[in-house]
Amino acid sequence: MKPSMDRYVSTISLYREDSDSSPEGTATRNSSKSRSYKRLSQLLNTFLEDKMVEFGRQVRQVKAGHRCALKGLLRSEGGWMTIPQGIPNCPPGLEYLTSIDQLLVHQKVELLEAFTGFETANKYTVKNTLGQKVYWAVEDTDCCTRNCCGPARPFDMKVLDFYQNEVLHFNRPLRCQSCCFPCCLQELEVSAPPGNVIGTVEQNWSIFTPQFSIKDTSGNTVLRIEGPFCTFSICGDVEFKVVTNDGNQVGKISKQWSGIAREMFTDADHFGINFPMDLDVRVKATLLGALFLIDYMFFEKKGNAEQDRPGML
């Protein structure tokens, strides 16, 4: 029980009474003063300890409030999207996708790569239609793999949220890219959280146009992607249709024209992706993975050399 101020005051009064009372003997008076002083010291120590504990608790509360306010300020100043709350049966970090039907993906320009052709790890900013940041994607590969394998390189890609938590993980194994090898086509695995596979993107064999299947965890095809015969980006967008199994278009992945200088001297591309608002967030995340796979297959340069080609030849 915490000592009250009344007990503290009464002990001081007792000490004063003992000091002012008539002497009945030096030993008795000294003994009484000693007891009162000892009790007063104990109460003062306890009182100060309790006050320090309370002060420390208040300081921690203020710091926590400042941290929350600072995070909110950083999110606001940095233009990050606010995460929706109370979304049931949703992998952590994918709550953003529940209220989104379009994403914009911008690749960061790397000056070293632009001037020397030395391949660096790709970095992307994923935004909503309001320009607010949703995710930050970073390629995780070694220097040798990037510069020896070029656009065909295998890679792991980490997708991070505002708090730097890895909410999505894309894995692309080493595969052949030509239509001459139908048994070893491109594939990308999507995990959320990392280690928990939620879908895959698989290339379908074709000669004239790129074809992909979006599959769920059971291996069932939920959507398909159909690309154009020509993936040249000449002053216009290149569109890949997202269709259902019966051929109805429900969205698209588009490589957006980003200006003559950016297109000629860098491989830092701009993409957009549309899908139904009510589409399962796991399928939305898998479509985002398909966007990155398409970028590497058709729009990533090897050094400073373009790799545009007709069909899948």
Describe the structure.
- There is one protein chain.
- With 313 residues, the chain is α+β, with helices and mostly antiparallel strands.
- It has 6 helices and 12 strands.
- The chain has helices spanning 5-20, 26-78, 111-116, 143-149, 260-265, 281-299; strands at 102-107, 123-127, 133-140, 155-160, 166-172, 187-191, 197-204, 211-215, 221-226, 238-243, 249-256, 270-274.
- A 12-stranded antiparallel β-barrel has the order 1-2-3-4-5-6-7-8-9-10-11-12.
- Strand 2 and strand 3 form a beta hairpin.
- Helix 1 runs antiparallel to helix 2 (26-78).
- The longest helix has 53 residues, at 26-78.
- The chain is elongated, with a radius of gyration of 33 Å.
- The model has no long low-confidence stretch (mean pLDDT 80).
- It comes from Culex pipiens pipiens.
Question: Features of this protein?
Answer:
313 residues, alpha+beta, elongated, Phospholipid scramblase, Scramblase, calcium, lipoprotein, Tubby-like_C
Write the layout of secondary structure elements.
Blueprint: H1 5-20, H2 26-78, E1 102-107, H3 111-116, E2 123-127, E3 133-140, H4 143-149, E4 155-160, E5 166-172, E6 187-191, E7 197-204, E8 211-215, E9 221-226, E10 238-243, E11 249-256, H5 260-265, E12 270-274, H6 281-299
Antiparallel strand pairs: 1-2, 1-12, 2-3, 3-4, 4-5, 5-6, 6-7, 7-8, 8-9, 9-10, 10-11, 11-12
Helix pairs in contact: 1-2
